[in-house]
Amino acid sequence: MKIKIALLGNPNCGKTTMFNAVTGSTQYVGNWPGVTVEKKEGPIRGHKDALLVDLPGIYSLSPYTLEERITRNYLTTDKPDAVINIVDSTNIERGLYLTTELLEMDVPIIIALNMTDAAEKAGINIDAGKLSKSLGCRVVKTSASEGTGIEDLVKNTIDIASLKERPGSYPRFSGCIEDTLEMISVAANKFSGDLPKRWLSVNLFSRDPILRQLLPLEEGDMNEIEDLIKSCEESNDDDSESMIANERYTYIDGILKGTVIKGRTEGLSASDRIDVVLTNRLLGLPIFFMIMWSIYYISIQTLGDMTIGWTETLFGTISERVSALLSSANVAEWLHALIIDGAIAGVGAVLGFVPQLMILFLLISFLEDCGYMARVAFIMDRIFRQFGLSGKSFIPMLVGTGCSVPGIMASRTIENESDRRLTIMLTPFVPCGAKLPVFALFAGAFFPQQSWVAPSMYMIGIGMVILSGIILKKTDLFGGEPAPFVMELPSYRMPKIKGVLTHMWERSKAFIVKAGTVIFFAAGLIWFLQAFSWSLQMVRPDESILASIGSFIAPIFRPLGFGNWQSSVAVVTGFLAKEAVVSTYGVLLGVGEVLEDDPMLVSQISRIFTPVSAYAFMVFTLLAPPCFAALGAIRSEMRSWKWTFFAIAWQTGLAYMLSMLIYQFGGLFFEGKEVSEMATVIVGSLVLIAMGYSLYRIIKNSVSGKCACGGNCARCGAAKAGHSK
């Protein structure tokens, strides 16, 4: 039977880096909170019989977020043989709060004082021996990023797991609190089961709502416990939860005296001096926009553009050699066309953008690892809060820049259920890596000199998040004050080259794998449907099965400027995978490797798009419901088909409305076309005006110091959820 060891610590304490060091895995490591969104496991190197479980980063075992519940349920239900508690040596006071809760759970525990190299540079010296004696458990100094102390940590962890070495003590509290806990322990003894007695008593004292629901508490027992708690609260003139928190910090302060010696620090640190500029109220947001513009500009139009010749040559060579091989083998004409014009052309159309994507992922990984992305969440919190959202909602959106699936899953950090649902709905608006090939294709074909086009997709995505938040937060479904947002800003650090390259490769590999599986299948199917009629006779593309299907749904997209059967088909295949949009055009237009500067591509695609309609198509791709995998994640996290369909309807409606307005008014002002579908345009314009007016009212009321919603709080449905001035 394998030994199970849980890895537990605060967000951004180096937990995932430690997991990789101990197991040899390559989980994503980021210098910002919210990296691990679910538990992951792997065998410990050199100990095949030992399994290490990486749990989400949490600050306490309170049951307010899904991550805290995941962790707590694992500790109480799965009962690991030992727990490695990672504590950030540079912020030991905060890290030990979780430690005090783990000591009460009476599980074999070892403390890993991580980031000791950073602590020493900051003039912090920790006596591990004294700390071990005070806590009653083993303490090991480590630096996961440098690989120091890892062997010692593993050896000691295996020892305590094998010996079932439990901590020798737990925090004792003062006055009536300790007396009340003893009485609660006696009252709860008859239904505690195998739950740790001390932990159970403390959580009952704190009125843990989930624990009270799980335990078979009779009314008499509950009343007895409640009377004990109220008596203690009256004596201390404080609520029970606050008293426990204060006692924990008092205990921590006591054991750190003489254990931690901090050197003198004068003035602001380097990180603080940088933050004076990057998190400035006026400069923070423009700097963020400039950085994102630079990233897209480098990855698509400069450095990324230089890679196009390589991919064109590569896929051209592959296509020629495979074609020659098939011809020499005298394969059937239809099979030759399927492989060359279908599979290779479709997959090549997508893989042609891999170098650009790798550059994009490299730059984003650098920003994440250096600590800047944590500042972005802080900056956006100030903006989001004005519109009823929390900065916590922006963290999943940052995660979603690689793929929407982990971004949607990262919403688990949000305590408020309505805020969490709203975040899940809006996270796909931020461009993921799968949408970049679509933006690169159309930006390169129609806007080769306009460097703002591709970055504008990111800005439109953020804008739609804000506008959607304005509207939906005014409804009873999502009303209420945003959840408080408290987040540590980690120190800036120079990213490790290995870590940045590993993260870039993991994201790129996922893209390549999808191209070799889902896109390969989709490209072959698209070729078959565009090559054969319903009677299974080979025909021209405009007489094919695909053309008839596309022509049937094309009128739906006519007000958006791409009411042709080819684009209608591309929209549909985009729901399978956004990369499939590019491969669809590669097959239907017969271009082969779809590259944005290919004269043949520009000539072919110009027949079905104008610059305005091309931009409208980009916006529709940005805002329309994500791929099937992301929709599955939405269903999983929403835990309701009703909410899932609501999310799909909102995303589709917003994408349709904005794309239509861009095409109709863009055609009027830039191409001299008359506005068509007037009734639809009028409705869409009224909705957009209403959204803009709501934005104006919120900003006006916020500046004047009035209630942010601008409404009558007495009649506001959100007031019931804690709405206040």
Strand tally: 8
SS content category: mainly alpha
How many separate helices?
Answer: 32
Rg, Å, rounded? 29 Å
For the record, give the distance between the C-alpha atoms at the N and C termini, rounded to a whole number. 58 Å
Identify the overall geometry.
elongated
Biggest beta sheet summary: 6 strands, mixed
The percentage of residues in β strands lies in: 5-15%
Low-confidence stretches: 29-34, 708-725
Strand order of the largest sheet: 2-3-1-4-5-7
Helix content: 55-70%
Mean pLDDT over the residues:
80
Number of discrete domains: 3
What do these coordinates show?
The chain is mostly helical and 725 residues long. Strand 4, helix 3 and strand 5 form a beta-alpha-beta unit. The longest helix has 35 residues.
